[in-house]
Amino acid sequence: MSNYRIQGATGDWEVVIGLEVHAQVTSKSKLFSSASTEFGAEPNAQVSLIDAAMPGMLPVLNAECVRQAVRTGMAIEAQINTYSRFDRKNYFYADLPQGYQISQLYHPIVGEGKLLIARDEKAGIPEDKYIGIERIHIEQDAGKLMHDQHPTMSYVDLNRCGVALMEIVSKPDMTSPAEAGAYVRKLRSILRYVGSCDGNMEEGSMRADVNVSVRKVGAAELGTRTETKNVNSVRFVMAVIEQEARRQVDLIEEGGTVVQETRLYDPDKNETRSMRSKEDAHDYRYFPDPDLLPLRLEDAFLVECRASLPELPDAKRLRYTGELGMTEYNAAQLTAEVETFARFETLLAETARQAGKTEAEVATQVANWTLSVAPGVIKSLGDEARLEHNTAAANAAILQMVSANTVSGGQAKEIYEIVLKTGRDPAEIAETEGLKQQSDTGAIEAEIDKVLAANPDKVAEYRGGKDKLFGFFVGQTMKAMQGKANPGVVNELLKAKLG
Amino acid sequence: MSVDKQTVAKIASLARIQMGDAELERMVPELNNILNWVEQLGEVDCSGVEPMTAVIPNTLRLRDDVVNADPLTGGDRRDDILANAPAREHGFFGVPKVIE
């Protein structure tokens, strides 16, 4: 249970949150027509006669959209319904030529499942928590309207009309903005692992309807909820919950009642406002679509769907902390995004191969490099970094020189910079540019002897018990070696000589 | 089951059909006749019979995910699509402003 509370004049309130996430299914063509789904086309270039609802056209279901919805359901450990059906949701709007949206009200393709949000004490999530998922159904998206292009007209682009969406409906299990934010991030991560949705919130591939109600702490009854539509970022989802919970508490405490209604979020003003006032707005008169027979899923199809699932975020995180012995922080960072773990795993395999070690032995080194060193160098170079030179082979070669003590951490960064700018070979750079650390004990010993001879008083003080002076000798030796001495070797030799 | 004038007016409004008072009056008995006629089906005992969704024993046919597989059901036909538009504006349908 989260301890998120809204302080009211009459006491503390808690918030109850449910989310309906609309995720655009990754497919080349639309749910019921073969028009393209590609983003950014000329207006109305990707509209078929089916999408435009010409008389006599019949919908034919896209097998890939079914497959992606089923795989998504499996990834959230949900019940897969081998019998599902399509229904018409009737309403009139300029973005919907059919006059109805084909959806699945009565028999959705995916039933109950769950999703784990990880403990995050800083964010106010004291322990791991499962959020229930009620259902996933597939449905058509509507077209896009633009109201600001002409003084008296709205413009309609039907390219998005008929594109497949999964509507992923959570249970009202979330009790703070942080939990809702973690839920959306985790869901996005799973969708991207599975490859069923690109999760691009800027392009509208994922958007959430946020259901919020409030009640006095400990009350058994749920309050009346409002639904804020089409919220398109994690940050806005969290802001909507904060604003809406506050508004409802204030309203109730002033003697008003919350009306069950649809609201809109205005990010500029950071407030929600009522969207539809018509009392019959929700009278959708659903009925089974007579154009579409029931969808039945065969065993062989389900087996293929399951076999095609990749290792999922939770399993991957456990493997990273277990088998690879990584810290929880590193594991969480590396597994959040598909691109990050893909880069990490490629580099891990290559580093282990070059070093002739197991992946577990090099995992921590590769993790630190992937998460902090490499991004830091790339960022500092800005446009000078040519990412085509950022190969796993080059990165692994640098890491190999570091673990062999041939180069220091600082030298590794310098070599990496040159690699990114020029694509030259790391070993060659280390050699040519003098970016190698001196591990030759003879040369280091000679410098140490000089340092000790030049500072007899300090040597005496050290031997007299002033341990802190050790750092001084290290510093002097490194300076004499122009910073290229292997610090481990310097330490060892100094300890021996100072006795 | 039967409908009254108010219900018919609501259904008409949801379907965006404008109806005058006289039309509504005429429509109420017409719709009720249809409803009564269909309601006769309720007299048949169909306990133990699975609901039928189609008259032919068949399941849904799926298609492969291929863009513009068939010219009749594919995109790339903007001129055809916009041929019926009330106004054609830079490739968009132009409709009366639908925002309050």
From TrEMBL, chain A:
<dbReference type="InterPro" id="IPR003789">
    <property type="entry name" value="Asn/Gln_tRNA_amidoTrase-B-like"/>
</dbReference>
<dbReference type="GO" id="GO:0006412">
    <property type="term" value="P:translation"/>
</dbReference>
<dbReference type="InterPro" id="IPR042114">
    <property type="entry name" value="GatB_C_1"/>
</dbReference>
<keyword id="KW-0648">Protein biosynthesis</keyword>
<dbReference type="InterPro" id="IPR017958">
    <property type="entry name" value="Gln-tRNA_amidoTrfase_suB_CS"/>
</dbReference>
<dbReference type="GO" id="GO:0070681">
    <property type="term" value="P:glutaminyl-tRNAGln biosynthesis via transamidation"/>
</dbReference>
<keyword id="KW-0808">Transferase</keyword>
<protein>
    <recommendedName>
        <fullName>Aspartyl/glutamyl-tRNA(Asn/Gln) amidotransferase subunit B</fullName>
        <ecNumber>6.3.5.-</ecNumber>
    </recommendedName>
</protein>
<dbReference type="Pfam" id="PF02637">
    <property type="entry name" value="GatB_Yqey"/>
</dbReference>
<dbReference type="InterPro" id="IPR014746">
    <property type="entry name" value="Gln_synth/guanido_kin_cat_dom"/>
</dbReference>
<dbReference type="InterPro" id="IPR017959">
    <property type="entry name" value="Asn/Gln-tRNA_amidoTrfase_suB/E"/>
</dbReference>
<comment type="similarity">
    <text>Belongs to the GatB/GatE family. GatB subfamily.</text>
</comment>
<comment type="function">
    <text>Allows the formation of correctly charged Asn-tRNA(Asn) or Gln-tRNA(Gln) through the transamidation of misacylated Asp-tRNA(Asn) or Glu-tRNA(Gln) in organisms which lack either or both of asparaginyl-tRNA or glutaminyl-tRNA synthetases. The reaction takes place in the presence of glutamine and ATP through an activated phospho-Asp-tRNA(Asn) or phospho-Glu-tRNA(Gln).</text>
</comment>
<keyword id="KW-0547">Nucleotide-binding</keyword>
<keyword id="KW-0067">ATP-binding</keyword>
<dbReference type="InterPro" id="IPR004413">
    <property type="entry name" value="GatB"/>
</dbReference>
<keyword id="KW-0436">Ligase</keyword>
<dbReference type="InterPro" id="IPR023168">
    <property type="entry name" value="GatB_Yqey_C_2"/>
</dbReference>
<feature type="domain" description="Asn/Gln amidotransferase">
    <location>
        <begin position="342"/>
        <end position="498"/>
    </location>
</feature>
<dbReference type="GO" id="GO:0016740">
    <property type="term" value="F:transferase activity"/>
</dbReference>
<dbReference type="GO" id="GO:0050567">
    <property type="term" value="F:glutaminyl-tRNA synthase (glutamine-hydrolyzing) activity"/>
</dbReference>
<dbReference type="GO" id="GO:0005524">
    <property type="term" value="F:ATP binding"/>
</dbReference>
Automatic annotation (TrEMBL), chain B:
<protein>
    <recommendedName>
        <fullName>Aspartyl/glutamyl-tRNA(Asn/Gln) amidotransferase subunit C</fullName>
        <ecNumber>6.3.5.-</ecNumber>
    </recommendedName>
</protein>
<comment type="similarity">
    <text>Belongs to the GatC family.</text>
</comment>
<keyword id="KW-0808">Transferase</keyword>
<keyword id="KW-0648">Protein biosynthesis</keyword>
<keyword id="KW-0067">ATP-binding</keyword>
<dbReference type="GO" id="GO:0006450">
    <property type="term" value="P:regulation of translational fidelity"/>
</dbReference>
<dbReference type="GO" id="GO:0005524">
    <property type="term" value="F:ATP binding"/>
</dbReference>
<dbReference type="InterPro" id="IPR036113">
    <property type="entry name" value="Asp/Glu-ADT_sf_sub_c"/>
</dbReference>
<dbReference type="GO" id="GO:0006412">
    <property type="term" value="P:translation"/>
</dbReference>
<dbReference type="Pfam" id="PF02686">
    <property type="entry name" value="GatC"/>
</dbReference>
<dbReference type="GO" id="GO:0050567">
    <property type="term" value="F:glutaminyl-tRNA synthase (glutamine-hydrolyzing) activity"/>
</dbReference>
<dbReference type="GO" id="GO:0016740">
    <property type="term" value="F:transferase activity"/>
</dbReference>
<dbReference type="InterPro" id="IPR003837">
    <property type="entry name" value="GatC"/>
</dbReference>
<keyword id="KW-0436">Ligase</keyword>
<dbReference type="GO" id="GO:0070681">
    <property type="term" value="P:glutaminyl-tRNAGln biosynthesis via transamidation"/>
</dbReference>
<keyword id="KW-0547">Nucleotide-binding</keyword>
<comment type="subunit">
    <text>Heterotrimer of A, B and C subunits.</text>
</comment>
<comment type="function">
    <text>Allows the formation of correctly charged Asn-tRNA(Asn) or Gln-tRNA(Gln) through the transamidation of misacylated Asp-tRNA(Asn) or Glu-tRNA(Gln) in organisms which lack either or both of asparaginyl-tRNA or glutaminyl-tRNA synthetases. The reaction takes place in the presence of glutamine and ATP through an activated phospho-Asp-tRNA(Asn) or phospho-Glu-tRNA(Gln).</text>
</comment>
